[in-house]
Amino acid sequence: MCYEFPMTVEWEGKIHEIDRRLTVAGLLDMFSLSKEAHLVTSNGTLTTEDRMLERDDRVRIVRVISGG
Amino acid sequence: MKCRVCGGQANIRLPQYNSALCASDFVAFFEKRVSGTITKHALLGEQDRTLVAVSGGKDSLSLWYLLNRLGFSADGIYIDLGIRDYSHVSLVKARQMADRLQRRLYSFSLSGTFSKGIEELARIMKRPPCSLCGTIKRYVMNRASTHYGYSVLATGHNLDDEASALLGNILHWKEEYLWKKGVVLEAEHGLAKKVKPFFLCSEKEAAAYALLNKIDYVYEECPHSLGAKTLLYKSLLNRVEDVSPATKIAFLKGYLKRAKAEVSREQEEKEKSSCKVCGYPSYSEECNFCRLLKRFGNGAAVRFDIYVPSEP
C-alpha cells in the first residue's frame, strides 16, 4: 500500500520522510538520539516516547542540549 | 501514557520522578519546582529587585518569563558579543520577551566599548573566546546589577549545565573550581547576589517549558560552543540518564550536601582585595576587565542601552 503523504521528520533543519508507523522511542533510536536530550512534537504537540507516530504526521525532533 | 495528575494524555515523561504529565500539569509542576528551589534556598525575597542574565536561549528566556509569572518583577540584561548574526538574532529574541513581559532590557555592546567583537578581541589576546566571554559577562552583569540597584542577578544555569561542569572539574581535578558551585552565591564585597533557580531542573524540562509556553528562543548553538567539552560531558551524562534515570540529580544533590562544608572552610581562607579602578573584587591591583579596557578600550565609558517596551 502506497501512502501519498509519508511522515515528515524535521531534524536539525533537514526534512526526512519515513513511510511507516513507529513510536517516538523508535524514531529516536533510528536517529541514535538520547531520549533525555531530545523532545519530539507531532503535528505541533509535545509527545511521550510510547506514542505511535502515523504516516502522515508532521514530526519535529527538538535538541534540548546547548551551551559551551 | 497517562498524565499522573489528571489521567489525560501525557505530553512528557519524566523518568527521574517516575512520572508523566500533560502540558498544563507539567507547566504547573515545573513552576512549583522552581518556586520550591527559590524558597528552600532563599534565592529571592519580595523586597528584591531581580535582574535576569538573558542570552536569548531557552533557559534564560524561560527563567525571565517564569520569574515574572511567579510575581517577581524581573528585568533583563543582554550582552552583545558581536558574534555575527548569532548576536543579532539573540538580541531580537530578548527584546521580544521584554515586549511580552513589558519589562526593561538593558544591553551592553562589546563593540561599543572596544570597537571589536569577541572573536577579534580573543584573537588579539590569544585567549579562547569562551574564556574571555566568561570574564566579560561576569563583570558586565555584575556592574549592571550594582549600578542600577538590582539586589539579585539570576542566571538560567540548569541541572545539565551544573552536572557537566562538575563532571569536567572532577575529571581534570580542578580543585580551585570544584567547590565553588551552588544554587546561590551571596552578595559580598562589590558583587551582587547570584542565584540559579533552575539548578535542579534538567535541560529537557527547561526546553519543554519553553516549548509549551511558546517562548521563541535562539535554537542555533553559539558558533564557539561547537566541539566544546561541556557538550561532550552533557552527552555522556544523558546516555547514563537514559539507562539510569535520576543519576544527574543525585549527582548534584550529593554535591550540594558536600559543598556546604567545603565552601565555608574556603571562605575563611580567602583574601579579599579590590580593583583600584572600579572597585570590583580582584586578586591583583586592577581587575581583568579594567586591564582589558586599558589595552583595547576605545575611550568610551562602559554604558548600557535601556530598552523599555512600549505599551501593547
Derived structural class of chain B: alpha/beta
Approximately how much helix is present in the residues of chain B?
40-55%
Question: Would you give the CATH topology of chain A?
Answer: Ubiquitin-like (UB roll)
CATH topology of chain B: Rossmann fold
CATH first level of chain A? Alpha Beta
Specify the structural class of chain A.
mainly beta
Strand proportion of chain B: 5-15%
Quick check: average pLDDT of chain A? Answer: 92
Note the main sheet of chain A.
Answer: 5 strands, mixed
Biggest sheet features of chain B: 7 strands, mixed
Radius of gyration of chain A: 12 Å
Can you tell me the CATH superfamily of chain B? HUPs
Unreliable stretches of chain A, pLDDT < 50, 5 or more residues?
A: none
Count the DSSP helices of chain A.
Answer: 1
Q: What is the CA-atom radius of gyration of chain B, in angstroms?
A: 20 Å
Count of folded domains of chain A: 1
How many strands in all of chain A? 7
Model regions low in confidence, pLDDT < 50 over at least 5 residues of chain B = none
What is the topology, as strand order, of the major beta sheet of chain B?
Answer: 7-8-6-3-4-5-9
Task: Give descriptors for this structure.
heterodimer, A: 68 residues, mainly beta, Ubiquitin-like (UB roll), 5-stranded mixed sheet, two-stranded antiparallel ribbon, 7 strands, globular, B: 312 residues, alpha/beta, Rossmann fold, 11% strand
Explain what you see.
The complex is a heterodimer of chains A (68) and B (312). Chain A has 68 residues and is mainly β. Chain A has a single domain (7-59), classed as Roll (Ubiquitin-like (UB roll)). Chain A contains 1 helix and 7 strands. In chain A, the strands form 2 sheets. Chain A has a 5-stranded mixed beta sheet, with no helix packed on it. In chain A, a hairpin with a 2-residue loop joins strand 4 (38-42) and strand 5. In chain A, 34% of the residues are buried. The model of chain A has no long low-confidence stretch (mean pLDDT 92). In chain B, a hairpin with a 7-residue loop joins strand 7 and strand 8 (193-195). In chain B, 41% of the residues are buried. Chain B has one domain (35-217, 229-307): HUPs (Rossmann fold). The termini of chain B are far apart. The longest helix of chain B is centred in the C-terminal third of the chain and has 23 residues, at 247-269. Chain B has 12 helices and 9 strands. In chain B, helix 1 (23-40) crosses helix 9 (203-212) and helix 2 (58-69) crosses helix 9. Chain B is globular. By secondary structure, chain B is of the alpha/beta class. In chain B, the strands form 2 sheets. Chain B has a 7-stranded mixed beta sheet with strand order 7-8-6-3-4-5-9, with helices on both faces. Chain B has a two-stranded antiparallel sheet with strand order 1-2. Helix content of chain B is 49%, strand content 11%.
